[in-house]
Amino acid sequence: MYADRMLTKWVQDHKPRAAAMKDQPAFYRNLEQAMDLSRTDHSLFVAKPRWGDEVLDLTSSDFLSFSRSGRIREAFQEELARHENFRLSASGSRVQYGNYDYLLQIEQELADFHGAEAAYIAHSGYMANAGTVAAVPLPGDAIVYDEAVHASTHEGMKLSLASHQLSFRHNDADSLLEVLSSLKESHPAFVSGKSSILIAVESLYSMDGDLCPLDELVQVAKELFPLGNAQFIIDEAHSNGVLGPRGAGLVNMLGLEKEIAIRIHMCSKALGSTGGIVLCNKTIRDRLISNARFAIYSGAPSFPMVASMRAGYRLLENGEAEKGMEQIQNSVKHFLKTITAHPVWEEAVDEGILNIPLAEDYESIEHLTHIVPVLTRPKHELYLFFHLMINNINAYPISFPVVPKGKSRVRLVFHAHNGLDQAETLANVICEWAQEMLDIEAGKTENVMPSAARQVFAMKT
């Protein structure tokens, strides 16, 4: 059973190792000692074994099930068959030999699909986002970012030439107004337009599952900076394929194509493919080619990589995302309906055992997202993860520093391959765990730890 293999490996990976390395070079001992701190805290990131289709998948990024169903593989093979004599390697960077015709053709097709002037393909969404944030701002510029943006944005900011980096409260237009106003009041260059502001947000936040109030944020920036020197970069990694017309994303859904300077899309999630895309105008594209280190100092994307991206977009163009998007909506609604109607739900929420912020007024939400976080007390996310895993359900625990302190959770990711029966099973299993936690707190059992956690930690001995 997958749970046995998965949890056995998890236990092995979290056993301290430094003490057993007394005879090893100090270089390796130091690294193991540093990792032992995370092992002791059960917070070490470890490589997990892949699970089979028999496991209820609430974790993978195959949102539309293109990979599981084989549809992306078939589309990819068809794309390769159209170009039998392709060269495997780009054999150079974009500023050298790697700027081949097929790559340019697909970039323009992707730009056209999303209603953008230009597109630039990167090896991954992470690289596209980090590399763009690093390359675009000039000295004297500012980066203003939602406090919940992805790690790739923070990585890009570390490398950026921007003179100012300021955060605003998550999804809070008033907070953005305050931050932008402070820049305007304290630095005349932003008033005159000599310096610019890049505002970094995400369309759909991967830890909270909530949508960006993009219309409101854009209006704030336009009113404060009518010269157009405050522009947005939006990470659409989690909305690509599951929001908007044909899965084109939040910007296309809102009709804000001309208001957003830079859009980052990712093909390795809903499309079941690989690679990242920067949607922009010609100025930004030229800036990336001339100034982005990932463009200058790494080989251009290979033909098979670009072909796999093209295959994913062929599926979107053909309307194959629509059915999956509808299935995700139905499954999330059924899950929320089932869990909030369960007899243990209200008591568990009142006692702080669990909480699902997205469950509040979910029936009135027009677009439910495929990401549903189940918040727990600190360290209890592990207990819930163990309980789900032993019930053949895979959904991963998330804790600090990935999320703020006190905001531990198990993140549920719904897919087109999660039917209503699976959504119902999931809700009941979570409530079963919640009831056990309530019984422990009420002193109805001698145990101080739930049964699944006791079973897992017993593997250590």
TrEMBL record:
<keyword id="KW-0032">Aminotransferase</keyword>
<dbReference type="InterPro" id="IPR004839">
    <property type="entry name" value="Aminotransferase_I/II_large"/>
</dbReference>
<dbReference type="GO" id="GO:0008483">
    <property type="term" value="F:transaminase activity"/>
</dbReference>
<dbReference type="GO" id="GO:0030170">
    <property type="term" value="F:pyridoxal phosphate binding"/>
</dbReference>
<dbReference type="GO" id="GO:0009102">
    <property type="term" value="P:biotin biosynthetic process"/>
</dbReference>
<dbReference type="InterPro" id="IPR015422">
    <property type="entry name" value="PyrdxlP-dep_Trfase_small"/>
</dbReference>
<keyword id="KW-0663">Pyridoxal phosphate</keyword>
<protein>
    <submittedName>
        <fullName>Aminotransferase class I and II protein</fullName>
    </submittedName>
</protein>
<feature type="domain" description="Aminotransferase class I/classII large">
    <location>
        <begin position="54"/>
        <end position="423"/>
    </location>
</feature>
<dbReference type="Pfam" id="PF00155">
    <property type="entry name" value="Aminotran_1_2"/>
</dbReference>
<dbReference type="InterPro" id="IPR050087">
    <property type="entry name" value="AON_synthase_class-II"/>
</dbReference>
<keyword id="KW-0808">Transferase</keyword>
<dbReference type="InterPro" id="IPR015424">
    <property type="entry name" value="PyrdxlP-dep_Trfase"/>
</dbReference>
<dbReference type="InterPro" id="IPR015421">
    <property type="entry name" value="PyrdxlP-dep_Trfase_major"/>
</dbReference>
<comment type="similarity">
    <text>Belongs to the class-II pyridoxal-phosphate-dependent aminotransferase family. BioF subfamily.</text>
</comment>
